[in-house]
Amino acid sequence: MTADMAVETVRDPAHGYTGEPPDRDGTELRVIVTRRSAEELQIIVYGQGRWFRAGLEIGTTELWQLGARLRQLWSDLVVRHQSPDGSYGDKVGGYPLSERADLSELATVTEELVTRLAREGYNLLATMLDGYDPDLEKARDFLLDALTGPNPLRITFDSEVQLPWPMLAVDPSRCAGPWEAFLGYRHQVEQNDQTFWDHAPTAVRDQATTSLNKDTALDEVGRAPEVCQLLKDQSRLIIRTQGKELLDALAAEILAEDLMYFWCHGHLSDNGNSGTFLSVRLSDDEHVDGPSVSARRRGIPRTPQTRFKPFVLLNACHTGRAGAPNALKHLGQELIRMGAAGVLAPQIDVPQVFAAEYAYGFLESYLAGERTAGEISQSLVRDFAEKYHNPLALAYSLNCGIDSRLDLAS
C-alpha cells in the first residue's frame, strides 16, 4: 500500500525560482539574457503565466557598448549640461543642473533633455530586441506590451550584459509624457546576479546596525551632515574613514551590519586590455575595489556560521556599473557575491549635492522598515521627477535587493 509522505522545504536557495518562476499576483516579470557563445545572446522572458525563448541578433560587445553610450549621454547632457550665456541666472559656462537638487526653475531645460533621453533609452531597448526571427518577434511583442502596460511591475533582469535598466525606456509615443517612458519610473527594477547561501541569523533587536564609510572631505556637502545625524539617531552607527578599516571589517567572518552606506568618490581608470577599472577611496589613498575585497574574503567558508548580508547604498560615482563580461568584477558585484542583500548605486558621475539629497530620502525610508528597496527607489524616481523636475534618480540602479526590507525581527 502506498503512503503519502509529508515533505517540508527547509531551504530554498532559488527563492521560489526553481523551474519556471511563479508570478503570484501578475506583477512579476523576469528577463534572462545569457550568452550562447562569446558574442551570441539569447533572451528568456517569464511573466503572466507565459514564457518565451529566442536568440538575439545583437552581439555581446555591441550591446555592452550601447549601454556605455547611454550612460555617457546622461553624463554629458545632464551632469555636464552648461549654461551657455548665463541665461539660467548662473555664470557663463557653469553646470546649473549639478549645483542643486531642485531643478523646478529649470523645468523647461530638463523637460527637453528628458524627452531626448527617453528616446535614447527606447532606442537601446528596441535595438536589443530587433530582429525578424518568429520566436524573437513573439518574445519582443510580449515584453514590450508588458513593459508599456498600465500596471506597475516588479522586474528582475538576469543578464550577463548588465545595462542601466532604469534608464531604458519604452516607446515615448505610447506614454502620457517622456518621464513615464523610463523603466525606472514605470516599474520596480533590479539586476540580479546573486549567489545564495545561508547566513548566521541575527537576533531580535531594537535598532539596526549601520556603517558610514566616508571621505571626510565630503562631510559638509549638501545634506551629508543630516544623513550622518539620521544614521546616528535611527541606528547603532559605525563610522569608518580609512580604507584599511573597511577592508579589515570586510575580512571578518561575521559582519553583523544591516546597512552599509558609502559616501566617497568612485574612480574609473584605464586597466589596459581589460578596459576601465573601478575603485573607491575613503579619506586615505587605499584603493578599495572588487579584487581587494575578494582577497580579504578568501578562505571564509560559505556556511550558516558566517554572515555578510547588509543592504548597501554605494553612493559614489559610477559604482552602479558592472565590469564588462569576462572582465574583473567591480566593487558592487563583489559585495553581491559576498552575500550582500542588495546594492543600490549610481551608473554615472552623480553631482554630490544631489547624491546627498538622494541618500537622505532613501535612508530615511529604508530605516523606517516599512517599504522595500524596490519600492523606495521607484518612489524616489517619481518624487524627484514630479517635485523637482530632476531626472538623476533614474541613474541609480538596484543590483539584487528589490525585496530587501529592514526587519529587526529577522
> How many DSSP-defined strands?
15
Measured between the Cα atoms of the first and last residue, the distance is: 43 Å
- Helix/strand-derived class? alpha/beta
Strand content: 15-25%
Mean pLDDT: 88
Q: Regarding quaternary structure, how should these chains be classified?
A: single chain
Give the uncertain stretches in residue-range form: 1-20
Quick description:
This protein folds into two domains: 28-191, no CATH class; 208-399, Rossmann fold. It is 32% helix and 20% strand. The protein contains ten helices and 15 strands.
Structure description:
Helix 1 packs antiparallel against helix 2, helix 7 runs parallel beside helix 8 and helix 9 (352-368) crosses helix 10 (373-388). The chain is globular. The protein contains ten helices and 15 strands. The chain folds into two domains: 28-191, no CATH class; 208-399, Rossmann fold (3-Layer(aba) Sandwich). With 410 residues, it is an alpha/beta fold. The strands form four sheets. A six-stranded mixed beta sheet has the order 7-6-9-13-14-15, sandwiched between helices. The protein has a five-stranded mixed beta sheet with strand order 3-2-1-4-5. The chain has a two-stranded parallel ribbon with strand order 8-12. The N and C termini lie far apart (43 Å). The longest helix has 23 residues, at 107-129. The chain has helices at residues 60-79, 107-129, 134-148, 183-186, 224-234, 243-250, 290-297, 331-338, 352-368, 373-388, and strands at residues 28-35, 41-47, 50-56, 154-159, 188-191, 208-214, 235-240, 254-255, 259-263, 265-270, 276-281, 307-308, 311-315, 342-346, 396-399. Helix 4 links the parallel strand 4 (154-159) and strand 5 (188-191).
